[in-house]
C-alpha cells in the first residue's frame, strides 16, 4: 500500500468523527453554493484539514492549500489529496523560506486566475496577499480566520487601515474557542508531551503560562493526570479564575524555580526567557501550545546552550550553569509537532464554522463590509447541534410557555450576544 492510500483511509475514517462537515455535505452539497469560489487556505495540513478541503470541493469550490506550520503536516494525507488532483503545498519540517514559497503557490490557481476567497489561520496568508499581491485584493469576497493569534494580527491590520476585505473570525464562535481551544487542547497537549518524552505527569509541578481558553484546557488536563499545576497570568480576571479553580498563581520568575514541565499558552511573546531558563531545575521540559514559536525564547537557547537532538522534535540543551532544558517541537505548537493536533471531532466543530463562514462571505458578500465579523449566534448554535447526535446527547426542547417566560424563541437563539458561556 502506498503512502497516499494509507492517507486516503485515514481521511475516510476521520469523516466518521466529523459529523458537522458531513452534515454540510449532505445539506449544501447538491446546490453547490461555493461554485465559482477559488479558496486558498493556510492551515495545519492534517487529516482533518483534508476532510475540510474535500467538503469545500463538494460544495462547489476550487481549493488549494498550504501548511501554516512546518511540523503540522501529515505528509501521507496530503499525498492522498494530491493523488486526487488537489494542490497542497507543504511538507513536514519545511524551512521558513520553503514555507513562504508554499504560501505564495496558493495565490494563483493552475488556470492562471487568482484566489477570490481566503481561509486562514494566524493571518499569514491574509498579510502576504495584502503585502505582495495588492492587485488581486479587489477580487476577494472574504476571508475566514481560524484562531486567536490571527484575530490579533487582523485587528492590527484593521486598526492601521490596511485590511481591505471582510473577515469572519470563526475563533469568535463559541463552538470554536470554547470547544477546540479548551477541550481539544485538554487532550492533544498531553498527547504531545507523552509521545515526545513518556514522562510521568503525576506528582510533577507543571507551570501553565496563560489561563485563557487554551490554558484552561492545558491546566485541567495536567491536573487530571495528578500534576501539581501553577498558572501565570497578566489579566486579573483570568488570574482570579485560576485561583478559584484551586491553582497556585505566581509570576514566571517565582514559578521557574519550582516547575518541572512548562507550557506556554498566552499568544504573547518572550514569556519564558533566559533568566527563567537559568533558574529552572535540571532537565525541565519546555513546550508551547500557543500559535507562534516566540513564547519561549528559543533563539536565546539555541545561541547560548549546547544542543543534543534526542529524536525528531525533542532537543536537550546544556546551559552554562550545567543544567539541562528539554525543548519540544522547537517551541512550535507541541500538540501539532509531537502529536497529531486536535482530534477530528473537535476540528469538526471548528471547520463547520469555517464552511459556514466561507458560504456567508461568498453568497452574501454584499452584507459584509470591510471589517472583522463573527458568525451569528443562530449559526453558532447550529454548529453545536450538528455535533450532538454523534455523542448521544438528547436536547431538551423549550415549550411555548417556557420560551415566553425566558423571552427567547423556542428554537433559539437562546442567549444574548454578551453571554459568556
Ligand atoms: N495548540 C492549539 O491547538 C491551539 C488551539 C487554539 C488556539 N491556539 C493558540 O493558543 C494561543 C492562546 O489562545 P487562547 O484562545 O487561549 O487565547 P486567550 O486570549 O483566551 O488566552 C491567552 C491568555 O494568556 C494571557 N497572557 C497574555 N500574555 C501573557 C503573559 N505574558 N504571561 C502570562 N499570561 C499572559 C492572557 O491574559 C489570556 O488570558 C493563541 O496563540 C492561539 O492562536 C492554539
UniProtKB/TrEMBL annotation:
Q: Which SUPFAM superfamilies does its entry note?
A: Formate/glycerate dehydrogenase catalytic domain-like, NAD(P)-binding Rossmann-fold domains
* An example Gene Ontology biological process: one-carbon metabolic process
Species annotation: Holothuria leucospilota (Black long sea cucumber)
- Gene Ontology molecular functions: adenosylhomocysteinase activity
- Look up keyword Iron and say if it applies: no
Cofactor binding description: Binds 1 NAD(+) per subunit.
Q: Which reaction does it catalyse?
A: S-adenosyl-L-homocysteine + H2O = L-homocysteine + adenosine
Q: Name one GO cellular component term.
A: cytosol
Q: What is its EC number?
A: 3.13.2.1
**Key word Nucleotidyltransferase present in the record?**
no
Q: Which family does it belong to?
A: Belongs to the adenosylhomocysteinase family.
- Which pathway is it part of? Amino-acid biosynthesis; L-homocysteine biosynthesis; L-homocysteine from S-adenosyl-L-homocysteine: step 1/1
Q: What is this protein called?
A: Adenosylhomocysteinase
Which amino acids does the record list as binding NAD(+)? 212-217, 233, 238, 335
Q: Which cofactor does it need?
A: NAD(+)
The alphabetical list of record keywords is: Hydrolase, NAD, One-carbon metabolism
Q: Where is the S-adenosyl-L-homocysteine hydrolase NAD binding domain?
A: 181-341
